[in-house]
């Protein structure tokens, strides 16, 4: 076997690693070793037929014929084409366990007679009223885990860019092995989930941002948010709406680019302006003596982070030029 040249090896490794992103972790190493060997043999065979052709060109041709990485991964692991793929499964499993642990804890308090009520944090609903039976509790657990499954399944479809035809797919468009523009799908999903939860709580269940107190006759909460916080709610809602749209677009796009980095910078400055408004404004929580200094620290950190992002964006613009938005 001919030893791969630098350009050929880089293109081959970029392809193999991209295939690996779509494979279950348990099978990834074996499948990638087999795929790498298969591709090298095909490149060597083609090179023996066309010895005057540059091997990097031959590598690109072989990879183009092999097809897009996600399609190749489905061929090696058909079970990966399921409702929740291997990339999202760890985050799904963690989220489902958190929901089950919280639900089990409330079930235990309900069984001991300490907790009698319901918690509705959209889209989850934990109902432990006096009329509930153990059958209702079990069905409630299944329903809440089902909600998690549905959400992650929808995100899987949104984030899946679809398989492109071999004729239109260019192996040279593969991201670099060390690619600063590659996104973490799990990270984006966690951001989207956090944004949605905060928006729903601040708008519909502010009392749940509080301190839990267990008394002799039951339990209760001490709300943290002061009523005056609603003065800032329109600005917070605008921030959450823009942030959700931006990170959903980044998830759909599949990678960072010039416009999304500029949007993230603008969003950071918008968030800093809201934090400044809260800090210099009236009461925001009943614990402002503690929270306001924390918000000042968050404001300074946000400004520093925005400055760093601005410098990096300017440097990338000068070094490489603004990148065109790739077609989805």
Highlighted features:
two-stranded antiparallel sheet; 10 helices; disordered C terminus; flat; 328 residues; 63% helix; mainly alpha
Number of strands: 4
Mean pLDDT: 80
Largest sheet: 2 strands, antiparallel
Residue stretches low in confidence (pLDDT < 50, at least 5 long) are 161-167, 322-328
Structural summary, described in words:
The chain is mainly alpha-helical and 328 residues long. The two termini are 38 Å apart. It has helices at 6-20, 25-49, 55-66, 69-76, 89-111, 134-159, 185-204, 233-253, 258-280, 288-320; strands spanning 117-121, 124-128, 210-215, 218-223. α2 (25-49) packs across α3. It has a domain at 6-80. The strands form 2 sheets. A two-stranded antiparallel sheet has the order 1-2.
SSE layout and pairing:
Blueprint lengths: L5 H15 L4 H25 L5 H12 L2 H8 L12 H23 L5 E5 L2 E5 L5 H26 L25 H20 L5 E6 L2 E6 L9 H21 L4 H23 L7 H33 L8
Antiparallel strand pairs: 1-2, 3-4
Question: Could you give a quick summary of the protein structure above?
Answer:
The chain is mainly alpha-helical. The protein has helices spanning 6-20, 25-49, 55-66, 69-76, 89-111, 134-159, 185-204, 233-253, 258-280, 288-320, and strands at residues 117-121, 124-128, 210-215, 218-223.
């Amino acid at each position: 076997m001919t030893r791969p040249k630098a350009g050929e090896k880089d293109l081959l490794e970029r392809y193999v690693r991209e295939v690996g992103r779509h494979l279950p972790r348990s099978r990834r190493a074996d499948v990638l070793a087999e795929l790498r060997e298969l591709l090298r043999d095909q490149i060597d065979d083609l090179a023996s037929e066309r010895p005057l052709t540059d091997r990097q060109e031959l590598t690109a041709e072989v990879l183009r014929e092999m097809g897009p990485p996600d399609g190749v991964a489905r061929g090696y692991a058909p079970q990966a084409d399921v409702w929740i793929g291997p990339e999202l499964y760890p985050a799904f499993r963690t989220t489902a366990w958190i929901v089950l642990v919280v639900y089990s804890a409330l079930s235990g308090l309900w069984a001991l007679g300490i907790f009698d009520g319901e918690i509705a944090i959209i889209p989850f609903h934990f109902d432990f009223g006096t009329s509930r039976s153990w059958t209702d509790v079990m069905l409630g657990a299944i329903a809440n885990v089902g909600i998690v499954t549905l959400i992650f399944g929808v995100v899987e479809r949104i984030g899946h860019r679809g398989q492109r035809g071999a004729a239109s797919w260019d192996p040279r468009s593969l991201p670099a092995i060390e690619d600063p523009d590659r996104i973490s799908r799990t990270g984006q999903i966690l951001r989207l989930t956090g944004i949605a939860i905060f928006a729903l709580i601040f708008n519909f269940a502010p009392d749940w941002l509080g301190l839990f107190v267990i008394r002799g006759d039951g339990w209760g909460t001490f709300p943290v948010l002061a009523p005056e916080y609603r003065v800032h709610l329109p600005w917070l809602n605008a921030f959450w709406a823009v942030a959700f749209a931006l990170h959903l677009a980044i998830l759909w796009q599949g990678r960072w680019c010039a416009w999304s980095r500029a949007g993230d910078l603008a969003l950071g400055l918008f968030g800093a302006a809201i934090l400044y408004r809260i800090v210099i404004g009236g009461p925001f929580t009943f614990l402002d003596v503690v929270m306001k200094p924390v918000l000042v620290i968050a404001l300074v950190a946000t400004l520093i982070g925005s400055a760093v992002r601005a410098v990096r964006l300017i440097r990338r613009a000068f070094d490489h030029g603004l990148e065109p938005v790739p077609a989805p």
